[in-house]
């Protein structure tokens, strides 16, 4: 199986997409509609998030295996250290390998139920993503990605320290990083430049999720860890009572940001799709990155 790094090579800009594991039969149908629609646009890879426990983890493994076995897409399996002993992590990594998945996004994860709660490692588990990167690499020929936070990880004291730990994860054996959501290109580009200034040559991919509704906006602000800049808030406020206008402006804002990132030389855009293809297709079509959007 090819690796993410191989798929990102070449001069032309690429894109990748992220999905959530389905919770029920309806979700499954929605997910697979999106998978098939986006498959036609040839993303560099598709990644599938890893849930906080039990059955949701099984669903991640099943969905990732199905992408590997039934589509032309390159799957990236997320994996977190939450509530797992090292033996269990080895087991999951073994499952991924057994179904042909060779690309893993190695994450520490958040305390279940309260993302801002105190992190408590499993007694036989790991404390930082850096250790999981080492474990995955040790277990086979995997291409490994990690998470990056343009505004700093919410638990980090300051941005410089967070970048230092990001570089450590990359130096531990990760090939690339995918960024958390952000509102304007500058924080991402500054993080990219700070990493490059350390001599680290790993690729950083920006994470994109268009603001399609005021509900989505609240989620984006929460995940990013930063307030929406005043100028963007003003643009969207005008459409507080006009969902179609709000959505169209959200697509405009995402397209403008993606264009600027491409102008700055990012090799690929990573879309958080929420298991829907439409917005990603619209942005890609407006950027001229796909002909069939
Ligand atoms: C692209 C992306 C995908 C994600 N997918 C998922 C998913 O599928 N499932 C899920 O549950 N969560 C997911 N998350 C959320 C992620 O698990 C949380 O944000 C988590 O809090 C941080 O994970 P990490 O891998 O960055 O942790 P780490 O890199 O371990 O960092 C955690 C904290 O510890 C600090 N730190 C790191 N290394 C060290 C060290 N050596 N010494 C001291 N401090 C250190 C960091 O600065 C940071 O504050 C995702 C996030 C992103 C950006």
Automatic annotation (TrEMBL):
Pathway: One-carbon metabolism; tetrahydrofolate interconversion; Amino-acid biosynthesis; L-methionine biosynthesis via de novo pathway
This protein's UniProt keywords: Amino-acid biosynthesis, FAD, Flavoprotein, Methionine biosynthesis, NAD, Oxidoreductase
Signal sequence coordinates: none
GO terms under biological process: methionine biosynthetic process; tetrahydrofolate interconversion
Cofactor(s) in the UniProt record: FAD
Coiled coil: none
Organism superkingdom: Bacteria
SUPFAM superfamilies: FAD-linked oxidoreductase
Protein name as catalogued: Methylenetetrahydrofolate reductase
């Amino acid at each position: 199986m090819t690796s993410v790094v191989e798929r990102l090579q070449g001069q032309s800009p690429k894109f990748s997409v992220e999905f959530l594991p389905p919770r029920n039969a309806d979700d499954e149908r929605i997910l697979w509609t999106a998978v098939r629609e986006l498959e036609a646009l040839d993303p560099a890879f598709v990644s599938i998030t890893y849930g906080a426990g039990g059955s949701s983890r099984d669903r991640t493994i099943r969905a990732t295996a199905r992408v590997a076995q039934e589509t032309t897409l390159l799957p990236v399996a997320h994996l977190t250290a939450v509530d797992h002993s090292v033996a269990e992590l080895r087991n999951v990594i073994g499952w991924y390998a057994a179904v042909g998945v060779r690309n893993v996004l190695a994450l520490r994860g958040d305390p279940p139920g309260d993302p801002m709660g105190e992190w408590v490692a499993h007694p036989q588990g790991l404390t930082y993503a850096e250790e999981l990167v080492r474990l995955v690499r040790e277990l086979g020929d995997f291409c490994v990605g990690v998470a990056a936070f343009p505004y700093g990880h919410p638990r980090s004291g300051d941005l410089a320290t967070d970048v230092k730990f990001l570089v450590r994860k990359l130096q531990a054996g990760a090939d690339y990083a995918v960024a958390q959501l952000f509102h304007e290109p500058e924080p991402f580009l500054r993080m990219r430049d700070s990493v490059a200034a350390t001599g680290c040559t790993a690729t950083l991919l920006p994470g994109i999720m268009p603001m399609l509704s005021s509900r989505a906006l609240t989620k984006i602000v929460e995940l990013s860890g930063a307030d929406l800049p005043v100028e963007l808030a003003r643009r969207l406020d005008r459409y507080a009572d006009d969902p179609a206008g709000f959505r169209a402006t959200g697509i405009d804002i995402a397209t403008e940001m993606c264009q600027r990132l491409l102008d700055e030389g990012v090799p690929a855009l990573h879309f958080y799709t929420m298991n829907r293809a439409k917005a990603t297709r619209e942005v890609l079509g407006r950027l001229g990155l796909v002909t069939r959007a």
